[in-house]
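User: Structure tokens for both sequences below?

Assistant:
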Amino acid sequence: MYVKLPAMIKKLSSLSHKTWFIILVLLVAVGAIAYFRGSDGKTAKAEYPQYYNFAGNYVFSVPKTYSVDEQSVPGAQLVYSGAIEAKTVEDVYNNKGIAVQGIADLTDHSGKGFKKYVNETFVPDLKKNLSTNDIKIKFGKANGGDNVSITANKDGKTIRFIYLKGGQHPAQVVAKEQSSPVKKITETITDLEKSAIKDEAAPIKQAVQNIAQLAKDQKPAELHSSAAKELRDKNSQTELTNALKTASPYTNGNITISGGSYAPNEFSAAIRFVKLDKNDQLPAFGSMSLKKIDGQWKLQALSLPTPKQ
């Protein structure tokens, strides 16, 4: 399911967990630093961990104390601090949360096309969805591409702050209002090709896909032998075989990995499982972490769902 954020702003799609507590995704936290051009064109510090979105091909730094939930609203990332209780995306915004998503309907990647999309499509939809004409727009440039900051006000109060990034892989950042964490994301969100991850992206994505396929195909021997020594030392092939068998109602279904958290030589991702059983399609969740060893990305840890008894 792809949810446009302008629609999300108004309709507030329900989160997909059965309970209303959002499950946080474990992020790798290390102190390395990279640099990007900020929204004002100046150099902005981009701290690890960085989130890499597979489908959107964009990267952004995760603010300190914040985590990325990439499963509650498929196609978007919710970024927030701590455990929050939320039934809708509006609840996430009210808890100082942030939503990030690619812009699929912006196909003209030129500067002229970007401004036309903002003025003729995005802003009119925003006014309609939020029932306000009090919209302030500020265009800018960063990383050689166009961007725009949009503030929506109603009854004298700010009700939405939105940042749109143009370029090869357009993306949008949405929050209730601008804040330091929002600024961190808007200053560091960039096309994959311009990021510090660019050389690692394809190997990471291929490794993640290979691991997911081995789990789906019930191939514990291949999964175990190709894993990092740390995983092999902690888990025997027999234990991995049993874990895969137990999780087979989920691994036989649809497996979705939207992206993950990157730090030098480390990557972690959440895994979304949906059974093929039409009577039981509530998603279950797992995770994997990889480590780069001798130039190869290897499975370091794997968490799989267990069917309820």
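Moving on to the next sequence.
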Amino acid sequence: MKIMKEWKGEKPDPDEKSLKAEFETETKALERFADTEDAHSRRKQANIEPLIKASGLSMEDIDRKVNQAKSDSKASLQKDEPQLLKPLFDIEARHAQDQALAKRVSEQLSEKGNPYWNGYIWSPSYAWRWISWNGEAEEIPTVSFNTSNRRFDPRAQAWGEGWWDGDFSLIHGYLAFRFSPPSWGHLHVYVSPWLHGYYHLYSNDEWWNSEYARAELDTWVDLYQNFRRHRQYLRRLTIGGSELHPTRYGRIDRGYSHSYYENVGQSDTVTIRVGVRLYCYARANGSHSILNFQSGAANYVYVPRIYWYLHR
């Protein structure tokens, strides 16, 4: 099993060393999971071969079924994807109204007499990603950034191969926001990322194979001031199974929220990162897992602002 890695960004991260160590730890955990799944699938294949022979099926028959399962898997995506590319409502109008209301609130907060420090960060300072994948070129996760529009568009997908080969695709993408606290104190951060995209999984396990598909989606926030603070993950989507009847798909057009709390010092720059984690896993021909926030103009992750509140 070969894991390929890529580490890119628009500007240097203030704590690149610790992020690389975290990336290595996460990838090793996924490698162990994939190895365990592969070993289980091999055992299942060995145990099922006598039954295949007893049923009168030949290995050539099974190979034809395996290839047909792969064709069915791809056909299901081609059929469903057109209706998944566009949201059911006008998301741009909703975002414009949300931004206008937030700016109106920020003007009220800046009035004299407010006993605490607070404010909005409207634009990200930089963007970054760290990714890993195992498998064919079509499974490589990708992400691009548009910091001026406060957006990035990640995609991850995995396709199973053969009787039992399991492949995964993992990606983190985030925007980083920076400011200097006017005082030491307790910093409360509130952020509401919007996710626009879709998921599509296919797995139609039969008695003679090991099809399985899984997708996980998290949003997260962390903070850096002189060293990396804790990261807050919130699971937004988990779908997995060997029998998905045989397709599971849908759009994700939702606004989420994080409330993050940390102590900070005065003047030293604070970096707040807001990101998503996409994980896809698929095993055996006829299974695939896709998380797509990239295809089409209406699919992206949007982080419009960060509200911060500082008190002693």
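User: Anything stand out in the second?

Assistant: The radius of gyration is 23 Å.
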